[in-house]
Amino acid sequence: MGFEDYPKLLQPTYACRHGTRRKLTEAAAVVGSIFKSAQTTLMPNRSLSMKTAEEQLPAQETGRSTDFTHERAYDDLKQAHQAFKRAAERLLSINHWDEYAGPGSARFTLTNNLGDELSGFAAQGFYFSIDLPAPGSDAGDGLEWVMIERVVSEGNAKTAEEYLLMTVRPVPDPRKADATIAHFFDDVSTSTFIVRRDGLAVSAGAHGRNETPNNSDVDLHDKIRNTAVALMARVGLSGPQWEKLVKGLIEYNEDDGKAT
Question: Best label site of 28, 35, 162, 218, fewest CB within 10 Å?
């Protein structure tokens, strides 16, 4: 299945805020049925009513914001559109993000709302775990957990801009009944990943908003650990991870398994 077969998953999703677990079983069932049918397409161009990718970012209200981007220009529109589609497929292929980022990357695993591993493209309402090359949290049994709360695709080969956007938010470990957020950031924080074509330029970005340490309503180990990891991220130690990923989303070569 290619990017142009990706289903339209723009209906409201279940969110997870302030430590409250929301049921996602129905959302996962809807996503599964859409994938099986494979008869839906991308959202059609909405011309003047179409929001830009930047306008889709969550508002920055508290904590810290971060932005990492990588861009490449192409010679003509056909090349640029094809490069955008390849990058969009990589963005949705979360299980392969460590390959795109290269050596030293965290490992990412796509799951359903019960924590069962999934293959294929990511979709709104799915979860994924993050295995950092650092001590893990108690709440997540060594893993960080986020939920994909929003997926937006806009534009096409004939519009000046086309993009795919995915926003994720920290959540509790879906394998547990415990409602403790399993991430070093609190659930007010979001990360938004964007692949975008603007004319002949194709870019990928990772945009953190409202990044706040998760040091409330967690055990002592996680309070210390989450504060330390969040502070490391604050001074820029998370930068290389996202910088390598956004570069890989654009430059990765499936033939040799490297970002050029």
Answer: 35
| Both tokens assigned to 197 | 């074509």
- Rounded to whole angstroms, how far apart are CA atoms 211 and 189? 5
Nearest to 180 by CA among 128, 140, 142, 211: 140
- Give 40-88 pLDDT, tens digit per residue: 233 344 445 678 999 999 999 999 999 999 999 999 999 999 999 999 9
pTM: 0.79
Angle between the N-to-C axes of helices 239-251 and 77-92, in degrees from 0 to 180, rounded to the nearest 10: 130
Q: Which helix (H) or strand (E) holds 154?
A: strand 144-154
Determine the Cα–Cα distance for residues 71 and 82; give it in Å rounded to an integer: 15
Per the CB < 8 A criterion, the answer to whether 76 and 252 are in contact is no
Intra-chain end-to-end CA distance of the chain, in Å: 25
**Domains of the chain (ranges plus CATH)?**
64-253 (3.30.530.20)
DSSP type of residue 105:
-
